[in-house]
Structure formats: structure tokens, C-alpha cells
Amino acid sequence: MIRMAEKGDIPRLIELLSEVLELHAKIRPDIFIPGTTKYTDEELEALLEDVSKPIYVAADDEDKVLGYAFCQLQEQPASNNMIPFRSMYIDDLCVDSSCRGRHIGEKLFEYVKEEARRLGCYEVTLNVWSGNDGAELFYEKMGMRTMKRYMEYIL
Question: Which of 1, 25, 55, 85 is deepest in the core (most CB within 10 A)?
Fold first, then answer.
């Protein structure tokens, strides 16, 4: 079952956020701090109230959260060289490592696409850290393709 996240899901969201952070810390120890999470309990409570930043969760029959998709609605305003449009940005998507291979990530991704359509979005976007090969392969399997590359030069 895919549903909107609720306040009672916060402890489980923190566990999964920790799992993602540890993966990112292994890929980029120069940037990420092991043993931390992207959000605090208080920040998650505030996010749950923000309709422009929906959080969807995949839950089992006992309502245990197995994965999540943190999203953000983004507006591209009209400009001299671009037409206005709305995007659904996936800020973070995670499936518990013990549940992978059960198509939970696919179901979450499909749900996000349907919500984006319902909300009048033109596209669904996200970023993938270089070195997170599993995530990159998953998103390509979901039909995503590279739109642009974000490059760095470390001083």
C-alpha cells in the first residue's frame, strides 16, 4: 500500500533516512557525516505539514513502512527562454535494504508519477550521486534518462 506519510511514521522514516545517509557517506565521505540523518524529527513534522513537499510511504499489511519517496513540487516560471511548467522532484527515495527485490521501489516510483500527473506536472526529476550505481540502474529501468549533468571541481 502506498499512502501519505503520517506523524507516526517518523521513527521509521528516521531509520530509513539513516540507511540512505550511510550509503552516501560510503560513496562521498568527504561530504556526508556518518551516523546522522538528513532531517530531524522536528523537521520531518514540519515537512508533513507542507503540501508542496509530499512524502509518500510504502507500507506492508501491518502498516510498517518499507520505503518512502520525499518529493517537492517545483514551478519553472516563464522567462525569456523557457515556458512555465511544474515538476515533481524526488528529493529522496528509499526502500529498506531487507525488502529490496520485491518491486516496492517500482510501486513507489509509479505512484509518484501518477501523483505528478494528477497535480498537473510536466515531468518527474531527481538527482543521483555518482557512485550510487544501483540507484542509477533502478531509475534507468523506470524509464528515466539523463537531462543534465551537475559537475564539480574539488579545491
Answer: 55
